[in-house]
């Protein structure tokens, strides 16, 4: 486990100093995705004094457009922390990120725990555990010298670009539209930069949530009541510059806005 902790410390140090991460030293780079997740969990413990407690997860690479863009053919998970969950309308300094980007997402809040002992989970099963949905902006950060060269294990170790989220108004499950048909639009400074539908997220966002619950269960971990899960981007990542205002509009769920000053 020493190499796991050494990798986590190297990533934590880069994050705290906002220094773009180069490839990890050969003797600590995670050898496979399973070890990448071990490093990620060690990183979460190291980061909590700075970003608060773990309040949920993000799921990356859930749509064809994102799998093609990142060149990873399956979903990947990362953590979401208390101090980087924001309300719609937030203004955030662009200088707090190495290179900030945004994604258009459907987020869910869990009404109950999904314990590892309940696995395997299906989309229908996890749907029953949701109490609300949100239009969401996932904030991502390209905090790498060249992410294309790092490989999935290292990107997973560093929470797969996760840098927080912005949530709109909660929509109770009883009022939820057909998520497959929900169209999402990413609008930057009044100009549409991407669009997609809920069906682009593994066929249905609930499939992504089931993937996460099953993935965590293999490691003896569960999801907990009150946690937020970002189910994956409907659009290709939009990279921003200081001064940009972003609005994500999701039909039937509402809209969510943020400005990066």
Automatic annotation (TrEMBL):
Transmembrane segments: none annotated. It comes from the Bacteria. Residues 85-260 form the Fumarylacetoacetase-like C-terminal domain. Pfam families: FAA_hydrolase. The keyword Transferase does not apply. Keywords: Lyase. One of its GO terms (molecular function) is 2-oxopent-4-enoate hydratase activity. One of its GO terms (cellular component) is cytoplasm. Its EC number is 4.2.1.80. This is 2-keto-4-pentenoate hydratase. It comes from Bradyrhizobium elkanii.
């Amino acid at each position: 486990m020493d190499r796991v902790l050494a990798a986590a410390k190297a990533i934590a140090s880069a994050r705290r100093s906002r220094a773009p991460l180069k490839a990890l030293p050969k003797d600590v780079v995670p050898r496979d995705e399973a070890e990448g997740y071990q490093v990620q969990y060690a990183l979460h413990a190291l980061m909590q004094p700075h970003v608060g407690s773990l309040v949920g997860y993000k799921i990356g690479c859930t749509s064809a457009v994102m799998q093609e863009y990142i060149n990873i053919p399956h979903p990947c998970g990362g953590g979401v922390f208390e101090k980087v969950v924001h309300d719609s309308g937030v203004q955030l300094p662009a200088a707090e990120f190495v290179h900030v980007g945004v994604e258009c997402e459907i987020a869910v809040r869990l009404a109950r725990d999904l314990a590892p002992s309940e696995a395997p989970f299906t989309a229908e099963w996890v749907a029953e555990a949701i109490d609300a949905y949100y239009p969401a902006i996932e904030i991502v950060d390209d905090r790498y010298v060249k992410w294309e060269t790092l490989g999935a294990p290292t990107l997973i170790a560093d929470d797969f670009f996760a840098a927080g989220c912005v949530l709109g108004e909660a929509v109770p499950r009883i009022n939820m539209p057909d998520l497959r048909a929900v169209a999402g639009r990413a609008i930057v400074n009044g100009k549409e930069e991407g669009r997609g539908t809920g069906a682009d997220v593994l066929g249905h966002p609930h499939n992504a949530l089931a993937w996460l619950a099953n993935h965590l269960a293999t490691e003896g971990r569960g999801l907990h009541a009150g946690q937020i899960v970002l189910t994956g981007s409907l659009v290709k990542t939009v990279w921003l510059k200081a001064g940009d205002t972003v609005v994500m509009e999701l039909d039937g769920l509402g809209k969510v806005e943020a400005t990066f000053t």
